[in-house]
C-alpha cells in the first residue's frame, strides 16, 4: 500500500532515542510539529530502566552530565523535580592497581602527596603547561596523552576511562573526534591543563539521574510529542519529489525531508539500495559488544565496602570486568539499604570476546571476580545481565568518513541525527537537538 504523507506539515523523525525525542521537543518549543516512528514498543533507545522488586537497574546510561543549556532544557520540560543528583561521595573515583582499589588523586596537592603515580609522571603532569611538542594528523587519543603527559597516565587512567565512557580502545580512538576539546586546548592555550582550568571556570556541569531511573527522561519527553511505536522503517528510496519511506508492515510514506535518529548501521540498512556506497561507509562504524551486569550482595558480607563512584580496571590488571559503578553509593535508593549494588561492565572494543560468552558464564566470572576484589563471603543476592550486541559508536578512523556521508545526505534532505554524528553523551544528543531545531527551515 502506498500513501502520501498525512504529515506534510510536520517533520518526520525515525527513532525515539534521546536524539529523536529531544529533537521533537526542541522543534515543538519553536512551534514546529513532528511525528516520530519508533521500531520498539517504548521510548528511550539506549536509555532503559528495569525495576525488579526493590532493585533498580539502569541497563544503558546511568547519568546525564548537564551543562547550563541542558539544565534549562530539562527545566523547560518540567523535569527539575524529578532530577536526582548523585550522593556527594561519588566525587571519589577509584582505580584497580595490583588487585586493590586505589583512590585517584583529584587535586594537584593530592597528586603530589599520593604515590598513585611515579615521580617521573608527577613531574610530566606538573610541567605539561610548558610542553611544546606537536602531534601528527589523525593522532590516537593514547598517543596524544602519552605525548602531553606520560605512558603511565595512559595505562593507569586513560585506558580504563575510555573503556568506561566509550566502551572503547584509547589506541584506536582519534583524539580529534573523541575529545576534540583536548586538541583545541593544546592549540589555543598551548596546554591541556591550562585549557581545562579555563573551561572549568566557564562551564560548570552536574551529573543527574531521575526518580525511577533514566528512562523517566524518555517518558517525560515522549509525553510531549507524537510517537508511533512498533513502526520499524524498513527502507528509504529516492523518488522524483523526495523519498519514499517503507515500513516493515508494507505501508509507505512520501516525504521531502526526513530525520534519521538511528545508529549508523541502521541508516546503512535503510539506504542500502538508494545510496549503496554511502551505506557501505556507514556500515563500517564500529559498535563493540558490551554487557552490563548488575549484582547485589549483603552489605555485612562485603569485606571492602565501596565508598565512591566506582572502580575502573586498567587493562594491564588482566581482569574480566572492565569497571564497576558502585550504584548503591551513587544512588542509595537503587537497592535495599542492607545491600550493595554494583553495575559492572564487561567487553567493549578491547575485550569484545568477553561480552560474547554465554550469559551464565559471564555472570559467574563477574561474581567470582567481585568476591575476590571486595572480599565478599556470600553469593550474590541478585544478578541481572543486559547484553548490548552493538553498544556505542567508536570515534575511530571510520567515523570521519561516516560524518562526511552525513553531511552529503543532509544536502539531499536526509538528516542523520544520532550519537555517531554529534557526540555520544546524552547531553551531546540534547545539545545537538537544540541547535538543529534553532536552524530548522
Ligand atoms: C551501556 C551504555 C551505557 C551508557 N552510559 C552513558 C551514561 O552514563 N551517560 C551518557 O551520557 N551516555 C551514556 N551512554 C551513551 C548514550 O546512552 C547514547 O549515546 C544515547 O542514548 C544514544 O541516543 P540516540 O537517540 O542517538 O540513539 P539510540 O538510543 O540508539 O536510539 C535509536 C532509536 O531508533 C530506534 N530504531 C532503530 N532502528 C529503527 C528503524 N528501522 N525504524 C524505527 N526506529 C528504529 C531504536 O529502537 C531506538 O529507540 C551509554 C550507552 C550505553 C549503550
CATH homologous superfamily title of the largest domain:
FAD/NAD(P)-binding domain
CATH architecture of the largest domain: 3-Layer(bba) Sandwich
Arithmetic mean pLDDT: 95
Uncertain runs are: none
The coarse silhouette is globular
Count of folded domains: 3
Separation of the first and last Cα atoms: 30 Å
Radius of gyration: 23 Å
- Beta percentage is 15-25%
User: What is the CATH T-level topology of the largest domain?
Assistant: FAD/NAD(P)-binding domain
List how many beta strands DSSP finds. 20
Number of helices: 18
Helix content: 25-40%
CATH class of the largest domain: Alpha Beta
Describe this structure in words.
The chain is of the alpha/beta class. It folds into 3 domains: 11-46 and 214-285 and 395-438, FAD/NAD(P)-binding domain, CATH 3.50.50.60; 106-203, protoporphyrinogen ix oxidase, domain 3 (Orthogonal Bundle), CATH 1.10.3110; 290-388, Polyamine Oxidase, Chain A, domain 2. It is 37% helix and 20% strand. The protein is built from 18 helices and 20 strands. A 7-stranded mixed β-sheet has the order 8-7-16-17-18-15-19. It is globular and about 65 Å long. The mean pLDDT is 95. Residues 14-20, 37-40, 45-47, 60-64, 232-233, 261-263, 266, 290, 292, 388, 391-392, 418-419, 424-426, 429 line the site of flavin-adenine dinucleotide (FAD).
Amino acid at each position: 500500500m502506498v500513501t502520501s504523507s498525512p504529515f506534510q506539515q510536520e517533520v518526520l523523525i525515525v527513532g525515539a532515542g534521546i536524539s529523536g525525542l529531544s529533537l521533537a521537543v526542541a522543534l515543538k518549543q519553536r512551534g514546529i510539529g513532528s511525528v516520530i516512528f519508533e521500531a520498539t514498543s517504548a521510548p528511550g533507545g539506549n536509555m532503559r530502566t528495569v525495576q525488579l522488586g526493590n532493585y533498580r537497574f539502569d541497563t544503558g546510561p546511568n547519568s546525564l552530565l548537564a551543562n547550563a543549556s541542558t539544565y534549562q532544557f530539562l527545566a523547560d520540560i518540567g523535569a527539575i523535580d524529578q532530577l536526582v543528583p548523585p550522593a556527594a561521595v561519588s566525587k571519589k573515583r577509584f582505580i584497580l592497581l595490583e588487585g586493590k582499589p586505589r583512590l585517584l588523586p583529584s587535586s594537584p596537592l593530592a597528586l603530589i602527596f599520593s604515590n598513585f603515580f611515579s615521580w617521573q609522571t608527577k613531574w610530566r603532569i606538573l610541567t605539561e603547561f610548558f610542553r611544546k611538542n606537536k602531534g601528527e594528523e589523525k593522532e590516537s587519543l593514547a598517543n596524544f596523552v602519552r605525548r602531553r603527559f606520560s605512558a603511565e597516565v595512559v595505562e593507569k587512567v586513560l585506558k580504563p576511562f575510555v573503556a568506561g565512557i566509550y566502551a572503547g580502545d584509547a589506541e584506536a580512538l582519534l583524539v580529534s573526534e573523541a575529545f576534540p576539546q583536548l586538541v583545541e586546548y593544546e592549540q589555543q592555550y598551548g596546554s591541556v591543563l591550562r585549557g581545562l582550568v579555563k573551561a572549568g571556570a566557564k562551564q560548570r556541569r552536574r551529573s543527574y539521574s531521575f526518580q525511577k531511573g533514566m528512562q523517566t527522561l524518555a517518558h517525560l519527553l515522549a509525553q510531549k510529542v507524537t510517537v508511533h511505536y512498533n513502526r520499524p522503517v524498513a527502507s528509504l528510496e529516492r523518488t522524483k519529489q523526495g523519498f519514499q519511506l517503507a515500513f516493515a508492515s508494507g505501508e509507505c510514506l512520501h516525504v521531502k525531508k526526513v530525520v534519521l535518529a538511528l545508529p549508523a548501521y541502521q541508516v546503512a540498512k535503510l539506504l542500502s539500495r538508494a545510496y549503496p556506497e554511502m551505506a557501505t561507509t556507514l556500515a563500517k562504524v564500529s559498535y563493540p559488544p558490551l554487557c552490563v551486569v548488575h549484582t547485589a550482595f549483603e552489605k555485612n558480607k562485603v569485606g571492602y565496602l565501596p565508598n565512591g563512584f566506582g572502580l575502573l580496571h586498567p587493562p594491564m590488571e588482566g581482569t574480566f570486568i572492565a569497571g564497576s559503578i558502585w550504584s548503591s553509593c551513587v544512588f542509595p535508593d537503587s537497592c535495599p539499604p542492607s545491600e550493595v549494588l554494583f553495575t559492572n561492565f564487561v567487553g567493549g572494543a578491547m575485550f569484545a570476546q568477553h561480552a560474547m560468552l554465554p550469559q551464565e558464564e559471564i555472570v559467574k566470572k563477574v561474581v567470582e571476580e567481585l568476591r575476590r576484589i571486595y572480599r565478599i563471603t556470600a553469593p550474590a543476592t541478585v544478578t541481572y545481565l543486559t547484553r548490548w550486541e552493538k553498544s556505542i559508536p567508536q570515534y575511530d578512523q571510520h567515523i570521519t568518513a561516516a560524518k562526511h556521508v552525513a553531511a552529503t545526505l543532509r544536502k539531499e534532505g536526509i538528516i542523520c541525527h544520532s550519537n555517531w554524528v554529534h557526540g555520544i553523551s546524552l547531553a551531546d544528543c540534547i545539545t545537538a537537538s537544540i541547535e538543529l531545531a534553532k536552524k530548522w527551515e
